[in-house]
Design goal:
The protein has 2 domains: about 270 residues, Queuine tRNA-ribosyltransferase-like (TIM Barrel, Alpha-Beta Barrel), CATH 3.20.20.105; about 100 residues, no CATH class. It is about 45% helix and about 20% strand. The chain has an 8-stranded parallel β-barrel, surrounded by 4 helices.
Length: about 375
């Protein structure tokens, strides 16, 4: 079984290690998003080792649609398929139910929706989500949930959350069954439950209490970063995290900017994931200690400096701003790749600094310094 060890706390911030069948995760951690079993932007798993990635995140729904989870199972599971030995977390497909709203129909047994690729009908419920994730053989499977809109009315959110709780019980039961089968790839697969409740603190707290009783391997806060303000997100975290088990990992799904991560760590979050670093990188937007830079900017045309002085990423060690700008302008894939590598390295390295700051009891001052740096740079 997985072992979560809390090593240090500073206020609500947690510094821990989470031992899994695919290696130990040092937290707080940022998971690098490889939706279909690869990071967008021509980034290989060898690159991920080089830039300090601890956990890769893939998507249940997308891999089910293409190439098919049964095919991945025949090929030995996702770790073998993508040649990655460290932990993988697979999300449950629940968020796609939210994002494909026009193509879906939610019922008690699960969700009927259409593939975004070719329109064929798909049914996914708690059992199907667990079966797909078991076929993929990920380290951590996420429970199947509904992610209600942050602007949904209270009555809808209440009913949705109650159904998510019932679905979680079904996920837990099915996961136990799958882990006991002889041909299961990863019999140690872990299950994280997801707290929902939109922006209603009381619904969130009640739900957190309910799922905390279920003794899962970890707990996520879902349904944030979907349209509410940063202030609302922080308010919900302040309210709900104290009701999630302190001795289990907490995961804030789909968040976020470097500033969001610092605020999340401060509120007791262990795990983060977000498409920002790779998506922004593909558009030539790179993160630095002084805010974001747009590499398409004409002022970098003759700039021989790296993206950021002192950065140890493959882009900064070998190439100039001028060259990277040229690649992007010429629509050369290497330009995207270098920006994505820089951004993921930046995030992974920031998490390392956060862990060091927590180890040394100086997270509060580190957070203050970082936020001031980001704010100063963005005004230039």
């Amino acid at each position: 079984m997985a072992q979560y060890t809390l090593m240090k706390t500073e206020g609500r911030a947690k510094r821990a290690k989470f031992e899994t069948v695919h290696g130990t995760i040092q937290t707080p951690v940022f998971m690098n998003v490889g939706t279909i079993g690869a990071i967008k932007g021509a980034v290989s798993t060898q690159d991920l080792y080089e830039i300090g990635t601890q956990v890769e995140l893939s998507n249940t729904y997308h891999l089910h649609v293409r190439p098919g989870d049964k095919i991945v199972k025949q090929l030995g599971g996702l770790h073998k398929f993508m040649n990655w030995e460290r932990p993988i977390l697979t999300d449950s497909g629940g968020f796609q139910v939210f994002s494909l709203a026009k193509l879906r129909k939610i019922k008690e047994e699960g969700v009927h929706f259409q593939s975004h690729i070719d329109g064929h009908k798909i049914f996914m419920g708690p059992e199907e989500s667990m079966q797909i994730q078991s076929n993929l053989g990920s380290t951590i499977a996420m429970a199947f949930d509904e992610c209600p809109s942050s602007v949904a009315d209270r009555d809808y959110v209440q009913k949705s959350v109650e159904r998510t709780t019932r679905w979680l019980a079904r996920c837990k039961k099915e996961m136990a069954r799958l882990n006991s089968l002889p041909d299961t790839i990863n019999k140690e697969q872990l299950l994280f439950g997801i707290n929902q409740g939109a922006v209603y603190e009381d619904i969130r707290i009640e739900h957190a209490k309910e799922i905390a009783k279920m003794e899962l391997d970890g707990y996520a806060v879902g349904g944030l970063a979907v349209g509410e303000t940063h202030e609302e997100m922080y308010r919900i975290l302040d309210a709900v995290v104290p009701y999630l088990p302190q001795d289990k990992p907490t995961y804030l799904m789909g968040v976020g900017t470097p500033a969001n991560i610092l605020e999340g760590v401060d509120r007791g979050i262990d795990f983060f994931d977000c498409v920002y670093p790779s998506r922004n990188g593909r558009h030539g937007h790179v993160y630095t200690n002084h805010g974001k830079m747009n590499m398409f900017n004409a002022k970098y045309e003759l700039d021989t400096r790296p993206i950021e002085d002192g950065c140890g990423c493959p882009a900064c060690r070998h190439y100039s701003r001028a060259y990277i700008r040229h690649l992007l302008k010429a629509k050369e894939m290497l330009g995207m790749r270098l920006c994505v590598l820089h951004n993921l390295y930046f995030y992974n390295h920031m998490m390392e600094e956060i862990r060091d700051a927590l180890d040394e009891g100086r997270f509060a001052e580190y957070k203050k310094m970082r936020l001031e740096g980001f704010a100063a740079g963005e005004q230039k």
